[in-house]
Amino acid sequence: MQNVERVLISEAEIEKRNKELGELLTKEYADKENPIFVGVLKGAQPFMSDVLKHVELVHIELDYMRISSYKGTESTNELRVLLDLTVPIEGRDVLIIEDIVDTGQTLKKLMDILELRNPKSLKVLTLLDKPERRTVEIEADYVGFTIPNEFVIGYGMDFDEHYRTLNYIGIYKSE
After folding, report:
1. Catalytic hit among 99, 102, 129, 158
2. Distance in angstroms (rounded) separating the CA atoms of residues 169 and 98
3. What is the number of other CB atoms lying within 10 angstroms of the CB of residue 100?
4. For residue 3, how many other CB atoms are within 10 A of its CB?
5. Where are the beta strands (DSSP E) in 29-163?
6. What is its subcellular localisation (predicted)?
């Protein structure tokens, strides 16, 4: 495909890992009273949807946030909340579901915002972790795949809103 240098993670690898993560979340959240899973739009939507197919719990509430900090392939280091949660999270176990943790700045700022709302616990599930790019000290609690310092597209991740619908994760090749 044009602008895909190579496939980094195949559809089959993603499906296998999503099943493992769903089973892990089933165990981790089985005894939680009223957990809420918060998907970070737009990138995490396919990942969240597919992982939840393997979570065998019925007492989880779902909500979404839409935040922005990227322009093209670079982070602007400015976090804009475009869509906020619709329910309070005070006293609740919250799991943020992200597509990628890169510099960590966006996730750190998001966690700071949510911490002010006094959740019982706040954890992070990310599909991709790119530790080489980290500029702040932050780690996800659950990681799908650790990847090298490459700009990736597909499976929800985009370049200027394109390539989100690829069923694999590829390395973006600029022209």
Report:
1. 102
2. 15
3. 24
4. 14
5. 36-41, 61-71, 74-83, 93-101, 121-129, 142-146, 152-153
6. Cytoplasm
Q: Within 13 Å and on the Cβ side, how many CA atoms surround 7?
A: 11
Known catalytic residue: 102?
Answer: yes
What's the CA angle centered on 11, arms 53 and 127, to 5 degrees? 65
- The structural domains of the chain, with segments of one domain joined by +, span 4-172
pLDDT of residue 114: 96
Distances (CA, A) of 136 to 4, 7, 102, 131: 29, 28, 10, 10
Q: Which CATH class is domain 4-172?
A: alpha beta
What does the pLDDT look like over 73-132, one tens digit per residue?
555 567 788 899 999 999 999 999 999 999 999 899 999 999 999 999 999 999 999 999
The encoded tokens of residue 92 equal 């609740």
Helix locations, the chain, DSSP H: 11-29, 45-52, 105-115
